[in-house]
Specification:
By secondary structure, this protein is mainly alpha-helical. The chain has helices spanning about 10-25, 35-50, 60-75, 90-95, 105-135, 135-150, 165-180, 190-200, 210-225, 230-260, 260-275, 280-285, 290-295, 300-320, 325-345, 360-375, 380-405, 430-435, 450-455, 475-490, 510-515, 520-530, 545-555, and strands at about 445, 495-500, 530-535, 540-545. Helix content is about 65%, strand content about 5%. It has a four-stranded mixed β-sheet. The radius of gyration is 26 Å and the shape is globular.
Length: about 550
C-alpha cells in the first residue's frame, strides 16, 4: 500500500512532469485518441493517489454515505434502514458494489469509487465533445479538467459525494444524445436508454432534475424535427422516452410500497428536499456565483479559463462569419440551456456547497471545446495557441505548489504515512463502543459523527445517521423526531452514543442539542440503557442487558 507524507516531493514532481507530457501529446494528432484518453485517466489517478489512499474522512458527507452502504448491505430497504437526506438512494446503493469484490466499507474504497466515477464522466464528456467539436478541440478541452480535478487539494472535489452518480447518468445521456444527432433515424433503443438514465437521475440527486429535463426536452425536439420520420414514428419514440423515463421511478415506488416505506419516501425525500432551504432568494444566490466559484479554489481558475477561451472562439467565429447550420444551432442551444439549468440547480438552495460545482463539468467542457474548435482553425498558430494557453493553466498549479513549499504549507493535506496500511484508525470513542458491541451489530449516534459507524463497522440503528434534522428548528422537525424515536425503539442498539459536544460537527451544545430534547427518547434511554462514561467529550450509553451480561462474565472470570 503506497503512503504519502505532507511533502511527497519525489512523487509530486515526476507526476507533474507527466502532465506536461500529456499536454504535448494532446496536440499530436498522430497519437491515437484512445491511447490519449487512457493516459489521461492514468494521470488523473496518479494525481489523486495521495488522497485516494488516505483512509480517513475528507468530508463528513462520505462518512454518511459509507455508513448507509454498510447498513444497506445488511438491510437493503431504503428509508427503513437509512435516509440519505439530500443525497439520493443510488449514491448509497452504489457504494455496496465494491464490497462484492472484497473491498471494505471504508474511505479508501470510497475514494477509489469516486475516482472511477469522475474518470467515467470525463471519458463520456470527452467522447461527446469529440463528436460535436472534433478530436483536437476535445483533447484540449479535457486537459484542464484532468489537471484541476487531479491537482486540486480541495476536499469537495476528492471525496465520494452525492453528485457523482447523477453526474455519471447525465454524462452518459449527453453522449447518447450526441450519437442520436449523428443518426439518420434516431434509434429507439438509444432513446429508451436515455429515458432510463434520466429517470434514474432524481434518485442520485433531486437537485439534478433540471439538467435531466434539458436532455429530455432536446431529445424530444430532435425527434419531432426529423423530416424523415412519420408522425407515428415520432409519437412512438417520444412515448418510448417517456415510458422508459418512468420505469425506474415506478420500480422504486413499488419497492417502497411493498416494504411499507412509501410514506417515508414521500415525506423525507420528496417533501424534505423541496422544503430544504426553501426560503432562499434565487437571485441573490445567482449574484453570489463569483464568490461561490472562489470557494472552489482552483475551480475558479477553470471557470475563468473556459470563459476566456469560449469568448475568444465566439469572437473568431463572428469574424470569420461562420455559417450557422441547424445542427450547430441545436448543439449550441442544448449547451446554453444546460448551462442555465445547471446554474439554477446549484444555486437553488443557496448553500454553496462546493461539490455542487461538479454539475458544471459538462457545460464547461463543451463550452471549452467549442472555443478551441474555432481557435484551432487559425492558420499555423492554432495548435501552438492551444498548447501555450493550456500550459499557462498548468503553470498556475506549479506556482501554487512552489508557494506552499516556500511557506511550509503541506503540499498534501491528506497524509497516510502513519495509518499503518489499509486500515481505518480508531478513536477512543470507537474503542470504547467495541468493548460492549461487535462489528455488524447496530449502533445509534446522536449528533454528527458518522465516522464512528465506520471505525466500528457497525450499521446504523436509525435511518438518520446525523441528527441535525432532529435537533434544529425547521418545518419538519416533529416528523424527524418521531421517526428517530420509532427507529431507535425498533432496533434498540446495544450501544447509544450521544456525540453532542466539542467533537461533533455543528451540534456542540449539550444542554440544548443533546438527545434529551426529545422527551420519549430520553425516557427510553433512561429506562433501558446505562450511562458508562464520558469519552473524548462524548457520552456513551450501553443497553442494560449488555452491561449486566458483561458484569456476569467478569465475575465468572474472577
Amino acid at each position: 500500500m503506497p503512503h504519502f507524507d505532507t511533502y511527497p516531493t519525489l512523487y509530486w514532481f515526476p507526476v507533474y512532469l507527466l502532465c506536461w507530457a500529456l499536454l504535448w501529446l494532446a496536440v499530436r494528432p498522430r497519437f491515437n485518441h484512445r491511447a490519449f484518453l487512457a493516459l489521461s485517466v492514468l494521470v488523473l489517478f496518479l494525481l489523486r493517489l495521495p488522497s485516494i489512499v488516505f483512509n480517513s474522512e475528507i468530508n463528513p458527507d462520505e462518512s454518511q454515505m459509507i455508513t448507509q452502504a454498510l447498513t444497506l448491505r445488511q438491510d437493503p430497504v431504503y428509508f427503513r434502514a437509512v435516509d440519505g437526506t439530500t443525497g439520493g438512494p443510488l449514491d448509497s446503493y452504489f457504494l455496496i458494489v465494491p464490497s462484492f469484490i472484497g473491498l471494505p466499507f471504508d474511505y479508501i474504497t470510497a475514494h477509489l469509487t469516486a475516482f472511477g466515477l469522475v474518470a467515467a464522466c470525463l471519458w463520456l464528456l470527452f467522447r461527446t465533445a469529440r463528436l460535436w467539436f472534433g478530436d483536437a478541440a476535445a483533447r484540449l478541452a479535457l486537459l484542464p479538467f484532468i489537471f484541476m480535478l487531479g491537482l486540486t487539494q480541495n476536499g469537495d472535489f476528492l471525496h465520494y459525494n452525492s453528485e457523482l452518480i447523477a453526474l455519471l447518468l447525465l454524462s452518459w445521456s449527453y453522449y447518447l444524445y450526441a450519437t442520436l444527432l449523428k443518426q439518420k433515424q434516431p434509434s429507439t433503443g438509444r432513446i429508451a436508454l436515455i429515458g432510463l438514465f434520466l429517470g434514474m437521475v432524481p434518485f442520485g440527486k433531486l437537485q439534478a432534475v433540471p439538467l435531466a429535463a434539458v436532455v429530455g426536452l432536446f431529445v424530444c425536439v430532435d425527434v419531432l424535427l426529423r423530416q424523415n420520420l412519420s408522425a407515428a414514428g415520432k409519437i412512438g419514440r417520444v412515448a418510448v422516452l417517456g415510458v422508459c423515463g418512468l420505469a425506474f421511478p415506478l420500480f422504486f415506488v413499488l419497492f417502497m410500497q411493498v416494504n411499507g416505506m412509501y410514506d417515508d419516501f414521500v415525506t423525507f425525500y420528496i417533501l424534505g428536499n423541496f422544503r430544504y432551504a426553501g426560503d432562499t432568494n434565487q437571485w441573490q444566490s445567482l449574484l453570489r456565483l463569483p464568490d461561490f466559484f472562489r470557494k472552489g479554489s482552483e475551480f475558479d481558475w477553470l471557470v475563468k479559463f473556459v470563459a476566456i477561451v469560449w469568448l475568444a472562439g465566439l469572437v473568431m467565429a463572428f469574424r470569420r462569419k461562420d455559417r450557422l447550420t441547424a445542427h450547430s444551432v441545436q448543439i449550441g442551444a442544448f449547451i446554453g440551456l444546460l448551462f442555465v439549468a445547471t446554474l439554477f440547480a446549484i444555486t437553488r438552495t443557496g448553500s454553496e456547497y462546493v461539490h455542487y460545482l461538479y454539475f458544471l463539468t459538462g457545460p464547461l467542457l463543451f463550452g471549452l471545446a467549442y472555443g478551441w474548435q474555432n481557435l484551432l482553425n487559425v492558420e499555423r498558430l492554432g495548435k501552438w495557441l492551444g498548447l501555450g494557453v493550456t500550459a499557462i493553466f498548468l503553470i498556475l498549479f506549479g506556482v501554487q505548489t512552489g508557494q506552499k513549499f516556500l511557506n511550509k504549507t503541506p503540499v498534501n493535506p491528506y497524509p497516510s504515512d502513519s495509518q499503518h496500511g489499509w486500515a481505518v484508525q480508531q478513536t477512543p470513542v470507537s474503542k470504547e463502543v467495541l468493548k460492549y458491541a461487535r462489528p455488524g451489530e447496530k449502533l445509534a449516534v446522536w449528533g454528527w459523527r458518522c465516522d464512528y459507524y465506520i471505525q466500528t463497522q457497525m450499521p446504523q440503528g436509525v435511518a438518520e445517521n446525523h441528527t441535525i434534522r432532529s435537533a434544529f428548528n425547521h418545518p419538519m422537525l416533529a416528523d424527524y423526531q418521531k421517526r428517530y424515536v420509532r427507529d431507535f425503539v425498533r432496533s434498540t442498539p446495544p450501544v447509544f452514543v450521544d456525540a453532542v459536544g466539542s467533537q461533533s460537527l455543528w451540534m456542540n451544545d449539550r444542554k440544548t442539542q443533546g438527545h434529551e430534547l426529545i422527551g420519549p427518547l430520553a425516557q427510553f434511554v433512561a429506562a433501558h440503557y446505562t450511562y458508562v462514561g464520558l469519552i473524548n467529550d462524548t457520552r456513551i450509553y450501553v443497553r442494560k442487558d449488555r452491561v449486566n451480561g458483561l458484569s456476569l462474565v467478569d465475575q465468572s472470570v474472577k
